[in-house]
Design brief:
- The structure is a single chain.
- This protein folds into two domains: about 1-165, no CATH class; about 185-295, no CATH class.
- The chain is about 35% helix and about 15% strand.
- It contains eleven helices and ten strands.
- The protein has helices spanning about 55-65, 85-90, 125-135, 150-155, 155-165, 185-190, 195-200, 235-240, 250-260, 265-270, 280-295; strands spanning about 1-5, 10-15, 40-45, 70-75, 80, 100, 105, 115, 120-125, 225-230.
- The strands form three sheets. The protein has a six-stranded mixed β-sheet. A two-stranded antiparallel ribbon has the order 5-10.
- Helix 1 packs across helix 3 (about 125-135) and helix 1 (about 55-65) crosses helix 5.
- About 40% of the residues are buried.
Length: about 300
């Protein structure tokens, strides 16, 4: 998914191979990004197969660059985006400067690779897109993975990060007081700190002060969190509803009943990687308090910096 920011909102373009919903209009490659008619479809050419991840990312970002946008937010189809908070985050950027912003991780190696989680999503500004297009046109060695490099083809975001770093653009620290705004797990796992060990390891050597350990409980998340990953449709609906007024009234017992009745408990509605609302009262309180007091939907009046 690609989110365009034009003025005050985030506009979605769904990228896919083969087929996309016909009721959505196509996003015209080579044309300026339209102001209305979203969501839109962007079909990857047939010669770029699903196995060619780096070629797909390059093709999509070239299309985005040609559309003349100020910034783009890249994420995948299991990522829930709180669009007003994304717009708020974008208001704080300087669109005349290169930026690569999301949830930074570091993979061990020599040298270690710092990159933004594609699951949590990341923002690229106009100068970043221009830089990438110039690098691809010049066939810069750091900006491509051969078709025989299957692991890199499956991790095109890592190649993108290497390309940007070779041109002086590193993953930004987007935390607010240590709390993250972009999350690679769903609300329940993020709030309770029950994330995978690999995820924790990839924070240990980040080049940011106090980046490890990951904050737990409601301290995990900034008030104006932008994204959660591993979010199926039913969880997305529950998250959206919980951010509205129907969750804020009543007692904690009322909210616990609300969560048990609205949040999926198992199966495909919950998905394979998100967790149900915890049975343990303390962990359940972490999720409840995250949704109640530590997440908000930004408005022009409440967005830091206006």
């Amino acid at each position: 998914m690609v989110g365009f920011h034009t003025g005050s909102g985030a506009r979605a373009v769904f990228v896919g191979h083969g087929h996309l919903p016909r009721e959505w209009p196509a996003f015209a490659v080579g044309a300026r990004a339209p102001c209305a008619g979203y969501p839109r479809n962007l079909l990857v050419p047939g010669e770029i197969t699903e196995a060619r991840g780096t070629a797909r990312v390059e093709w999509v970002l070239r299309a985005v660059s040609a559309a003349g946008v100020d910034a783009v937010f890249m994420a995948n189809d299991h990522t829930a985006v709180i669009a007003p908070n994304l717009a708020c985050f974008l208001r704080g950027l300087n669109f005349t400067e290169a930026a690569y912003a999301g949830h930074a991780l570091r993979q061990r190696g020599t040298p270690p690779d710092t990159f933004n989680s594609g699951a949590a999503g990341y923002v690229l500004t106009r100068p970043t897109l221009d830089l990438l297009v110039r690098a691809w046109d010049a066939k810069h060695a750091a900006c491509a993975a051969g078709d025989d490099k299957k692991w890199l083809q499956g991790n095109p975001g890592l190649v993108l990060a290497r390309c940007l770093r070779a041109h002086g653009v590193d993953a930004a620290d987007t935390r607010v007081g240590g709390a993250h705004r972009f999350h690679a797990f769903g609300p329940s796992r993020t709030a309770t700190g029950t994330v995978d060990a690999w995820y924790e390891r990839m924070h240990e050597t980040l080049p940011f002060a106090n980046a490890h350990p990951l904050p737990t409980g409601v301290a995990c998340c900034d008030r104006f969190t932008v994204s959660f990953h591993y979010v199926e449709a039913a969880v997305q609906y529950a998250l959206d509803a919980a951010l509205r007024a129907d969750f804020s009234g009543g007692t904690n017992a009322d909210r616990d009943r609300w969560l048990r009745s609205h949040w999926p408990a198992k199966g495909k509605d919950l998905g394979g990687y998100e967790h149900k609302i915890p049975d343990d009262p303390a962990k359940r309180a972490d999720v409840r308090d995250l949704l109640l007091a530590h997440l908000d939907v930004a408005t022009p009046a409440t967005c830091p910096g206006g």
